[in-house]
TrEMBL record:
PANTHER family: ENOYL-COA DELTA ISOMERASE 2, PTHR43684. This is Probable enoyl-CoA hydratase echA8. The gene is echA8_5. The keyword Isomerase applies. Its EC number is 4.2.1.17. It comes from the Bacteria. Gene3D superfamilies: 2-enoyl-CoA Hydratase, Chain A, domain 1 (3.90.226.10). GO terms for molecular function: delta(3)-delta(2)-enoyl-CoA isomerase activity; enoyl-CoA hydratase activity. Its main location: other. Signal peptide: none annotated. It is found in: Peroxisome.
Length: 245
């Protein structure tokens, strides 16, 4: 069974993470499928918007570390790298519905979304430094722009988890929704986006994202440092301790 599931409904492409035994942790095959579904949706005129959703009351617990350690060369064809740059190139709007854990990539991907909704169980974390790594996906640029330098430093350097109320206060999510209504509420908002005039919507998104070149440059720098840290003795020690847990 595929750990990435897709459903197209009335102009909305719903992409779901479903790997319950690993708390929806992303392995490289999941990254590959995510990228393929996004690229296919971009080329399909019937798809007007994307929605990301984690099943089993968990958005994603982050990267599958064991899988990453076996594939640590983060070149341009690495599935995770292709996914990150696919996010930067998306023209159609992206919405996320977050329940439970949103760790690592589970939080950084939200910085690339247009709308983010969460329920009361949502827990966010950016534990890169905890694992002797550096942030990914341009988070070192996007997060300070969104929440301010001091708060971004707290979230990235200490790597502590924070709840939906804190994420909402920091403008990282649009709204906290009742647990049982999260999916349907996010879907209704996504469907409303899908019914907007597509060209005007896409151009407006582009106008709100004027620093694309800077984002690309920062992503490349992040990946270079991430790759180097992934192979460091410091990180290997942290990974061994993490995997033993």
């Amino acid at each position: 069974m595929s750990h990435i599931q897709v459903q197209d409904d009335q102009g909305v492409r719903i992409i779901s993470f479903n790997r319950p035994d690993k708390r929806n942790a992303f392995d490289l095959n999941m990254y590959k499928q995510l990228t393929e579904y996004l690229i296919e949706g971009e080329a399909d005129n019937d798809i007007r918007a994307f929605m990301l959703y984690g099943k089993n009351n968990c958005f994603t617990s982050g990267n599958d570390i064991a899988d990453f350690l076996k594939n640590s060369d983060l070149g341009p064809n690495h599935p995770a790298v292709r996914f990150l740059f696919c996010l930067l190139e998306l023209k159609k709007p992206l919405v996320a519905a977050v329940s439970g854990a949103a760790v690592g990539i589970g939080t950084t991907v939200l910085l690339h979304c247009d709308l983010v909704y969460a329920d009361s169980t949502a827990k966010f974390q950016l534990p890169f430094v905890n694992l002797a790594l550096v942030p990914e996906a341009g988070a070192s640029l996007l997060l300070p722009e969104l929440v301010g330098y001091q708060k971004a430093a707290e979230l990235l350097l200490l790597g502590e988890s924070f709840n939906a109320q804190t994420a909402h206060r920091l403008n990282m999510i649009n709204e906290i929704v009742a647990d049982e209504e999260l999916f349907s509420y996010a879907y209704r908002r996504q469907k409303k986006l899908a019914n907007q005039p597509p060209q005007a919507l896409q151009i407006t998104r582009q106008l709100m994202r004027p620093h694309k070149t800077a984002y690309n440059t920062k992503c490349i720098k992040n990946l270079e440092q991430f790759s180097a840290r992934l192979k460091s003795d410091e990180a290997k020690s942290r990974f061994q301790a993490f995997l033993k847990k």
